[in-house]
Amino acid sequence: MEIEIFRKFLSGRGLKLTNQRVAVFNEIFAFHGHFEPERLYLKIKDSGTRASRASVYRTLNLLVESGLVEKITRTEKGNVYEHTYGHRHHDHMVCEVCDEIIEFYSEKIENLQDEICRKNNFRGVSHTLEIRGYCEKCGRQR
Amino acid sequence: MEIEIFRKFLSGRGLKLTNQRVAVFNEIFAFHGHFEPERLYLKIKDSGTRASRASVYRTLNLLVESGLVEKITRTEKGNVYEHTYGHRHHDHMVCEVCDEIIEFYSEKIENLQDEICRKNNFRGVSHTLEIRGYCEKCGRQR
DNA sequence: GAGTTAATTGAAATTTAATCTCAATTTCAA
DNA sequence: TTGAAATTGAGATTAAATTTCAATTAACTC
Fold it and tell me: Which residues of A touch B127 (CB under 8 A)?
C-alpha cells in the first residue's frame, strides 16, 4: 500500500502519520488526475474530516518530498499537483483551441535530457515538457 | 529596430509609446539574459527614469503580448522573463535552490518532438521544456 | 498510569508577487 | 485650443502559500 511508503517516509524523519495527514493522503489517492491545493482542501472539508488549510499545505509538501506526489506546474492560479505512485511519467501536448491534452512518453527524449544534465553538472529531479499547438480535429479546420 | 515593432504593436491597439514604456523597453533590451519584474523595476528606478511598479508590470505584459518578451518560468519568487528578439529558441534548467537558470538546446530533442507530433497528428506550434533540479553548486551541498 | 518530551494542529496573521483603483495628468487629433 | 481617450502612480487589494504560536496530541520512559 502506498500509505506504508508515506508512513515510512514520515517515521524516517521522526514524524507521525496523524489523522489529518491520512485524510490528505486518502483524498489525493482517491482519484487519478491533476489537482490544486485549494480544491483538495475543500474536498477534504466536504468529506467530513477536519484538516485545516495549513495542515493540507504542510502535508502536501511532505508528500512531494516523499516522492509520492509531484508538483506538475505553476499556473496563474497556483500550483498543480498529481500523485505519481504507479503512474509512469509522461509529458503533454495541449491543443490551443479545444484544450485537449494528449499524453506522450519518449524514452529517447528522457535519455537526452539525462545526458544534457550530466553535461551541465545539473542533477535533474523532474521536468515538464509541454507542446502546444493544434490537435488533429482542430488542426484540420485551419 | 525592435522598438519599431513595439510601436507598431501598440498603435495597432490604439496605444501610445510613452516615456515609461520606452524606459521599460530599453532596460529589457539593454542586456541579454533573464530578469524578474521587481529587479527590472529597481533598475529603471536607478537609471533615473520615473516609472512606477504598476507601469513596469503593465508594460511587461504588453511586451509579452507583442511577442518581444517571453515569460520563461515561474519560480517560488515570481515570474522570470527574457527578451526573445533575435534569440534562438532554447530550453531551460532551473535550480530548485538558487533559481539559477541554465539554457540548453538539443537538435535531437527538437526532432523527436516533431516526430511525436507527426505520430499523433498534432500540429506543434511551440513548446516548453523545463528541467528542475539542483545546479552544480547547490547539488554538491546535499 | 503518570509524567515528559517533541511533534502537530488550527486560526489568524503574515508574506509576497502581481493586479487593480481612480483621480490627476498627458497625449494627440481635430 | 479643446476634448476625448489613454496613461500614470500611489496606494489598496488580491490570493496563494507560509508562518506564528498557544493549545493539543502522540509516543516514550519509568
Answer: 129-132
Cell output for A118:
550530466
Number of A:B CB contacts under 8 A? 108
For residue A116, the chain B residue with the least C-alpha distance is B104
Q: Does A97 touch chain B (CB under 8 A)?
A: no
Query: For residue range A19-66, what is the model confidence (pLDDT) as tens digits?
Result: 999 999 999 999 888 899 999 999 999 988 889 999 999 999 999 999
Q: Do A112 and B113 touch (CB under 8 A)?
A: no
Instruction: Please state at what angle helix B107-119 crosses helix A107-119, rounded to 10 degrees.
Output: 160
* pLDDT of the residue at B126: 83
Distance in Å from the first CA to the final CA of chain A: 48
Asked if B109 lies within 8 A of A104 by C-beta distance, the reply is: no
Q: Which three cell numbers stand for residue B133?
A: 533540479
B134 to chain A, minimum CA–CA distance in Å? Answer: 5
The upper half-sphere exposure of residue A11, i.e. CA atoms within 13 Å in the direction of its Cβ, equals 7
Residue A141's pLDDT is what?
A: 64
Q: If DSSP states are collapsed to H, E and C, what string results for chain A?
A: CHHHHHHHHHHCCCCCCCHHHHHHHHHHHCCCCEECHHHHHHHHHHCCCCCCHHHHHHHHHHHHHHCCEEEEEEECCEEEEEECCCCCCCEEEEECCCCCEEEECCHHHHHHHHHHHHHCCCEEEEEEEEEEEECHHHHHCC
pTM: 0.82
Dist. CA B6–CA B23, nearest whole Å: 13
